[in-house]
Design a protein that fits this description.
- The chain is α+β, with helices and mostly antiparallel strands.
- The protein has one domain: Nuclear Transport Factor 2, Chain: A (Roll), CATH 3.10.450.630.
- The chain contains four helices and four strands, in the order H-H-H-H-E-E-E-E.
- A four-stranded antiparallel β-sheet has the order 1-2-3-4, with helices on one face.
- Strand 1 and strand 2 form a beta hairpin.
- It starts with 8 loop residues before the first helix and ends in a 13-residue tail after the last strand.
Length: 159
């Protein structure tokens, strides 16, 4: 005896709508976080902003902004302040890659274009699991930059 299960057309449509709306919500999260990073770079380029204030705004709610991580943040700020003397003035930042790992991690990679050399920036956002529909907000758990441009060859989308 075989057991056969079928979905009716209305049931199938309901499942497709739920799956599609979940995918849209995930895409919206990625887009919203990319917009935050875009704003971060715009604020860094603004002569009326300080790097410290801009980094603190990006890292709001993150352990990276906690007193326990203050030395790491100061070191990151020091390295950021060396970019212009080393590579020239900032020209633009372009999104290179967005990757999602499950429902809790989003990896964003940007190419920071300076006059003399590009710099790769990596942002990792985390959102803890939650039973609430909207859940907690995303926050940065890792922020780094370097000149390992060859690593972009695997992720490039035509810059």
């Amino acid at each position: 005896m075989s057991l056969r299960r079928t979905l009716t057309i209305p049931g199938t449509l309901a499942i497709l709508v739920v799956v599609n709306s979940f995918g849209i919500a995930q895409e919206d999260d990625s887009r919203r976080l990319a917009e935050k990073v875009d704003q971060f770079f715009e604020n860094l380029a603004n002569p009326n902003s300080t790097a410290t204030a801009v980094f603190n705004e990006l890292l709001d709610g993150s352990l990276l902004a906690s007193p326990q991580s203050s030395e790491k943040l100061l070191a990151l700020l020091d390295e950021y302040k060396k970019l212009e003397p080393r590579y020239g003035a900032f020209l633009e930042a372009k999104e290179v890659d967005v990757r999602r790992v499950g429902n809790s991690l989003i990896f964003l990679t940007y190419l920071y274009k300076a006059e003399q050399f590009p710099v790769v920036w990596r942002f990792v956002y985390y959102r803890p699991p939650s039973d609430e529909p909207d859940g907690p907000d995303w926050f940065v758990v890792r922020l780094s930059f370097d000149t390992k441009i060859e690593d972009l060859a695997a992720t490039s989308r035509g810059l």
